[in-house]
Amino acid sequence: MVFQVSKKETVPIEGQKPGTSGLRKKVVVFKEPNYLHNFVQSTFDALPADQVKGATIVVSGDGRYFSEDAIQIIVKMAAANGVRSIWIGENGLLSTPAVSAIIRERIAADGSKASGAFILTASHNPGGPLEDFGIKYNMGNGGPAPESITDKIYANTKTITEYLIAEDLPDVNISVSGVTSFDGPDGKFDIDVFDSADEYVKLMKKIFDFASIRNLLSSPKFTFCYDSLHGVAGAYASRIFVEELGAKESSLINCIPKEDFGGGHPDPNLTYAKELVARMGLGKSPSQDEPPEFGAAADGDADRNMILGKRFFVTPSDSVAIIAANAVQAIPYFSSGLKGVARSMPTSAALDVVAKNLNLKFFEVPTGWKFFGNLMDAGMCSVCGEESFGTGSDHIREKDGIWAVLAWLSIIAYKNKDNDGGKLVTVEDIVLQHWATYGRHYYTRYDYENVDSDAAKNLMAHLVKLQSSLPEVNKMIKETRPEVADVVEADEFEYKDPVDGSISKHQGIRFLFEDGSRLVLRLSGTGSQGATIRVYIEQYENDPLKTGRDSQEALAPLVEVALKLSNMQGFTGRSEPTVIT
Ligand code: G16
Predict the structure, then answer these.
(1) Mean of the per-residue pLDDT values for the chain?
(2) Comparing C-alpha atoms, which of 362, 355, 358, 346 is closest to residue 492?
(3) For residue 497, is it within any domain?
(4) Does one domain contain both 183 and 267?
(5) What is the DSSP code (8-state) at residue 147?
(6) Does residue 552 lie within any of the structural domains?
(7) Which domain holds residue 497?
């Protein structure tokens, strides 16, 4: 059978602007007639022709509700647009980092490589018929499409008049590995379904010393727990932690991927990873059992991570700093040194102190993983991270949740390597030692979710106006909490990419204090409804006698100042944030 290509008329649909990481909307919106079709065609039309015609493209995601329907539609549209091969992880499952690895590493039997990928995920947002779906495009380097492409996609969605589809192509059986070939007007079209984990596991084995991690996991002193929150990390957890590294099957919780994430919110933080938090002894009512020594969780698409020790939370900002400080000694992939390190602007300056002490190149970029990609492609950055529970390296061009766990396990193994009979060097010991060397950045983030969009815009506009009068800002601070230092600089963060010179403006409102503290406010680019206001609060302490305080208590004066300056309650009507991390 030769499939036919149909041209279907359509009209532009409003609101298809990709956010921080792709287009995320409610499933009901994605199910509206032509909603997905318009976005997919707009993407094909935004890509260079040779990355579509005759190319190989990956399509998969975190398996959330509507994924299979979306895969079938994208396959038919890809065939009609002249794509040569489509690669799909079994059951449509590929974690975001695995997609990046596949684009970079996988070579088909005929020697071809993929030129890009549609990743179907709304990341840490809940899934199900009434929840969120998402789609984003990654390029040939394995990283999210740059703004030059996402801007084109958006422009196309505003002028689209038709899309192409091969309606008579049968649905693909995505549950069985193998290649199926079809004949189309442009020649052959292949659909290649393959194991979701093989390529990723191979890559992890090249980066880490699995033998030393296996040794750690077999030690009676060390106990371990991993929570996939029913996201796609479950498709990798058993293979890596149990089969390859010898962890007990019972150390994995919520590791069966589910299309609605078991009804939960697949966001690995202290609020949503409730079961793990309780197991680790950090819950409101501490668990009866002795908590494990190490715990970690992933989000829906497995690019985020949360790292916990026994009754101990590691902030993501500290996590990337600690990984950077120990990478060369503990992780074989970095043994010849780090090319540089980078963090997003709202992430705490813990990484800056490490970079300074170790004399490493350092970059501060806007929120959004795509900004790290250019630095990595140019060989300027090896390790990077964000406060939003994202950590990664130049092995791929996405953040990588399981990589972060393996990095921590490698560091713990390294710190315990000569420790035959002694007490385990724990996660907490490693963090305390880090603070003793580099000082501590107290850090917290307040999120106000689903706020009225106009109220959020007005709040931001009010802050920008306030920034023009520092004496007024400092007067308000003194009236609120006299012990808080003066603001010495206030601006909106703007980034000039050192590789391609592109400029990104309005990347967050900053208040920089005389003692190094910072307040940052920005609107999230990943929500699907209303606006989410994020308030980031940070204070540096390098007096060893003062690094052991409770972080919410230490930051209370700055939090009060942030809420006062922003007039949060006045603009939004909210007296409490939705989530504190
Ligand atoms: C995405 C981006 C991250 C960003 C995060 C939060 O992650 O890749 O770089 O930090 O969104 O962004 P925002 O503060 O705008 O909500 P993910 O895991 O959601 O794909």
Answers:
(1) 94
(2) 346
(3) yes
(4) no
(5) H
(6) yes
(7) 440-580
Phi, psi angles (nearest 5°) of residue 563: -70, -35
Among 447, 526, 578, say which to mutate for ligand 1: greatest number of ligand atoms within 8 Å of CB: 526
Task: Note whether 469 and 569 are same-domain residues.
Answer: yes
Cα of 427 vs centre of ligand 1, distance in Å, is 26
Q: pLDDT per residue over 404-429, tens digit each?
A: 999 999 999 999 998 777 899 999 99
Q: Are 349 and 366 in contact (CB under 8 A)?
A: no
Which of the residues are catalytic? 123
- One-letter amino acid at 543 equals D
Q: Is 56 helix (H, G, I), strand (E, B) or coil?
A: strand
What is residue 165's three-state secondary structure?
Answer: strand
Predicted local confidence at residue 288, as pLDDT = 67
Region 279-305: mean pLDDT is 89
SS3 of residue 236 by DSSP: helix
- Find out whether the beta carbon of 124 lies less than 6 Å from any atom of ligand 1: yes
Say if ligand 1 is within 6 A of residue 538 CB: no
Is the pLDDT assigned to residue 536 strictly greater than 70? yes
Q: Which residue's C-alpha comes closest to atom 4 of ligand 1?
A: 368
Instruction: Identify whether residues 294 and 402 lie together within a single domain.
Output: yes
Q: How many CA atoms lie within 13 A of 125 on its CB side?
A: 28
The pLDDT score that the predictor gives to residue 121 is 97
**Cβ(390) to ligand 1 under 6 A?**
yes
